[in-house]
Amino acid sequence: MTSASLVEQEVGAAAAAPTPAARTRGLRKVYGSTVAVDRVDLEVPEGAVLGMLGPNGSGKTTTIRMLLGLVRPTSGEVELLGRPMPESAGITLPHVGALVEGPGFHPFLSGRENLRRCASAEPLMASGSIRGAVSEALERVGLSHAADRRYRGYSLGMKQRMGLAAALLLPRKLVVLDEPTNGLDPAGTREVRKVIGELHAAGTTVIVSSHLLAEVEATCTHVAVLHRGSVVAQGELDELLEAGSPAVVVSTPDVQLALDSLRDNGIGARSEQDGLVVDLVGTTAPYVVRVLVESGVAVHEVHRRRAGLEDLFAQLTESEESGDQE
């Protein structure tokens, strides 16, 4: 292949690569002597549902506020929908729906009237579409029954639903939700999960900041884990869970024979409720199967063991704590 062909191939690959929906490089935010965000490199693929995880004070909300141009970084770069922020906020933000740090509405207006005011401020909303868009958003978040009640009488969960409705007044390229299930009961949490699924199916990119690991595992395709202002892991959720669990589960009636055979070959294994768990540290799944079969063990099934997101989160944050103490 000629050098010209190689150049053409590289240019074609670059052209085919999709622009991330959101990206940061060396993002840093300092308040006085407090470093809230420290050199965060984050990339959110277009169409992904990214779960942003981290304990309180890890920098999740500050990172989101810098993504949306609500806070100017101390240093670093931010791109949203392919444009630099906050310089391009006027062009970019009409395509972004966001619920950040709890919603704020006029207490003496009804939910419907508040949403109409929000809709009238949307630069991409035609005036003739406001009434229908408001009704649809209220229905989508389960607030139609309370639409004409004053906002001041809403519960915490209802206020959270209102914030979500405002973010969904019209189709968005990106939706950012900061703790969207805060204050919601189990039914409300399921509804938010359904909305996120609908957005994902429609091709909308979603960023969800949450401390509910089970919800993130159920709804997200990608995850970014923040700890003490830095990203300690990010990527596709399935890949991270696989990487955090170097083990296979073997289904066999010959449990003791299998344990003895594996341990004789220096392979760690233990019997648990779901089967024989074999650690893959220093070995491979094919070799484990070979040892078992050659030892006369009846192997019915072998599958990779995935760590739960809670286990992965604990591993990542605890390893960071250990590193700080060394």
Automatic annotation (TrEMBL):
One of its GO terms (molecular function) is ATP hydrolysis activity. Keywords: ATP-binding, Nucleotide-binding, Transport. Belongs to the ABC transporter superfamily. Residues 22-253 form the ABC transporter domain. This is ABC transporter. PROSITE patterns: ABC_TRANSPORTER_1, ABC_TRANSPORTER_2. It holds the Pfam family ABC_tran. It comes from the Bacteria.
